[in-house]
Predict the structure.
Amino acid sequence: MSLTLNILVDGIAYGMILFIIAVGLSVTMGLMRVINLAHGGFALIGGAFAHWLTMAQGVGFWVALPLAILGTVLVALPLERLLYRRIYGFGELQQVLATIGITFLMIATVNLWLGSSLLQIRLPEGLGQPVDLGFRTLPMHRIVVIGAGLAVMAGLWLVLDRTGFGMRLRAAVDNRATAASLGIDTGRIFALAFCLGAGLAAFGGILGAELLPVDAYYPLRYMVLFLIVVAVGGMGSILGSFAAALGLGILETASRYLVPDFGTIFFFACVIALLALRPRGLMGRLT
Amino acid sequence: MTESLTLPLPERLARVPFLAEALLLAIAAAMFFLLPYSLGFLTRVLILMVLVLSIDLLLGFAGIATLGQAAMYGAGAYAAGLFAIHVWADPLAGLVVGAAAGAALALLSGLVLMRAQGLTLIMLTIAVAQICMEIANKARGVTGGSDGLRGIRMDPVLGLFEFDFIGQTGYWYALAVLAAVFLLLRLVTRSAFGLSLRGIHDSPARMTAIGTPVYGRRVAAYALAGAIAGIAGALTAQVTQLVSPEVFAFTLSAEALIMLVLGGTGRLIGGIIGVAIFMTVHHTAAAHDPFNWLFVIGAMVLGVVFFVPGGLVSLPARLRGLMGRAL
């Protein structure tokens, strides 16, 4: 019973982090049809800013968090304007290569700036404490992570479903040419969505540093994981990413608890089986 | 015949059969005498050329994008290593075993993978390599786990040429295998099978319409490329006498793909040139400062993708085009 609950809580927390980081990737992939292998790089940049702010500058965590996200968005914006804009028009393979190149440059930059060791982020006292929920105790960090994941999901739903920006974004995802011909500035929508995705990746990277430790090679190490979430969830589907991230989070945690020696093998075998059955993912739309 | 004599010199040279290949072979032979103390590195370059040729068959001819060719390379390396330790230490037999292992893994995974396209396909190829790496890590009793497979001792090549410490035999051996693989691929890509792959590359729908079994051809191409990657892996195992789970690493697949695109896809010579340039830059840049090597490779990839999308082999034609326009 306690084991099941542990698996569930850890798995859901892990899945929430995956969701927060990968949802931006899913949106940009669905929107711009660009395979952005450098997406994890934005989580790294966020983590690097947060590390620098909390450790070297002595800024508190709750101040450093928004600053680091802002910093990441300020890096993402010119990248989108200068590089990604041209990458949208490339073929799949060129996109993969160009974004691998960008990933390498991000890793090298962070490496030059902060070195290749673990980039620790100092968490506030409160996050480390266990919390008594009456029937059992849970680490505060897990609760915050799960809460943040739900908040991101709700926030995205509000933005996409209830605002003018969301409406235009959905129109651009459904049919870019028609949306543009109706007078929607798709270039601006792309830039905004890209920055939103980069900011969310930074948020997830910082919040999840306990579960996915941040160092310079972060984008390469977890790239496959984030891409799998998108591939399983279906490109461009937020609900799909949510379901896939939670499912994969619980699956990986459970296989690590229950079959520790073959956890990764079991995990990838499940992913292959699922993608073989549903090549477009859980909620992928036909294009 | 008279018509070809009126062509400008570069074009006339381009029509001489095997001229470029003979030149490269001469360069490879010269390298042996010019850099006698870097034979280990040069042999590694030759082996990577075999691996990159296998990716060129997939990507350049059949249009199958993969980021997991290391899976077949690693399978060949482990198969050849285990075969040498437990069964027979003959190098050529080891190559056959490596090729068989690579082909078997590619055939098995290809049956599932070749149904997918685009991102899903790329994901699946990565996933297969990751699973292989996990298995190599966990099956300690067979593979030695993360310590690697040790104790590979090879018999002399053809019973005549003993492997030496400086790597002279290894170099000529790898060069001979590379030449053989190159010739084989040249035959394959010019056969009816190779032409059908080119057709699938350009338009799978039309190839289906004229009755080509597209899925079957793709699986066959994947298995053949797997066999060649397996040969590359077997060569590594035999020459370095060590196999570690790193043979399945994602970075190997990614770098091999970058080398291919750097040189130019769809032309066998492109892969060869790409590996040569990439490894030369790597060797010099990494010798200066191993940490900033990623800056160099990142900039190199972006430069090629943005400015020379056809790869370096397309440069002469593009330059001529520019000159023609300028005149």
Q: What stands out?
A: Chain A touches chain B at residues 29, 35, 83, 86, 90, 92-94, 96-98, 100-105, 107-109, 111-112, 116, 220, 224, 227-228, 230-231, 235, 261-262, 264-265, 268-269, 271-272, 275-276, 279-281 (CB under 8 Å). The CA atoms of residues 51 and 122 of chain A lie 7 Å apart. Chain A has one domain: 2-277. The first strand of chain A starts at residue 130 and ends at 132.
